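Ticket #398: bound-state structure for zinc ion.
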Amino acid sequence: MCSEGGERGRWTPQEVFREINSLLDRLAEEDLGSLPAESMGEDQIALERICNRVQAEALRRLRRFDSGQGYTSSGALTAKAWLRWKCNLTYTSASNQVEVARQMDALPQMSQAFGCGDISFRHASVIASTAADLGDRMEANAEDILVTAAKNLDPRRLKIACLHLRHYLEPDGVLRDAKEQHDRRYLYLSQTLDGLFYLNGRFDAEAGAVLRTALDSVMRPPAPNDERCGRQRQADAMVELARRQLDGGQLPEVGGQKPHLMVTVDMATLTKAPGSRAAELEWAQPIPAETARRLACDCTITPVLHRAESHQVEAGRSSRKIPAAMRRALIARDKHCRFPGCDIPAAWTDGHHIKHWPDGGATALWNLLLFCRLHHRFFHEGGWTLQQAEGGVVAIPP
Ligand SMILES: [Zn+2]
Ligand SMILES: [Zn+2]
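RESOLUTION: The complex was predicted; output attached.
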């Protein structure tokens, strides 16, 4: 027993559940507005411990239900299936609960700490899965070490401690798991009918760390006016990594030429003439005129031989619209993205024509500004405009 006093044996479980519910009703009736906010902290701790105790008791009963096949009269084939059905649990959640319940007899110290509310279900689950992995290599004092760690660490850090312990007791098993994780790697890039791409994948710890390190290096801390959420910044960083590879010219040739993005566009589309067709990315994916104009801002453009009115925009560093010498001068002058407050370095920028060349603008220093990919978009798809003013150009929102 973890609490004081109390006479046992007088109450049926149903009476106890009724009593617990009526006690919770008393708490729910309390007007919290009249209580000091600080007192809620103590309440959180107390209720968290009670939650742990309730969950431990539920698992203790689940253990009996599972081993005695108490579910058969309902027609369910397993305790996990019954839990999913009667308690509306997910497959993973039902499975976790049964697995931990089955380990409770073999892990008395864990069960005791859980039953007293000292550790949570997540902690118990981490210890139980470590014990299952270790099997008979689980040494007598290992449970003591893990339960002590669980009382002081969050489940994630406990998991790391468990991996260290397992590596100490069973290095072959840790290596075997790592190989299995590596074998289960995949990356799936798929396109929907709407033209959207979905990226889905799984990587082992090392590969994930490589990807994360590379993404972090191009993510940089957000600028003060950067309104992108973390996910959007991560998606942009992923594309930036690929774009740099394409721009770097180090990738192997495909079909006799360096890989690059190809856009086919009519001159009428580039000048935004009314009634003009959409531009087309490779594989005939239509894109708006303004996106083609952005890509054409700093890329070479060549006529398509078999279609007199069409041109091809080739996005890649080897095919810059702005000649190398002019770009060097532009970098020397602008140094970084020219959007107010943005300091993305020149290497990550495109040259933007203040008056676009399809509209008769010159490719000359006075008509060019460096913008990072994010802000270049502002002046095309985003509808921002640039106006000459005293002391330089100013950016006007749409
Ligand atoms: Zn531009
Ligand atoms: Zn910028």
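RESOLUTION NOTES: The chain is about 50% helix and 15% strand.
TICKET STATUS: resolved
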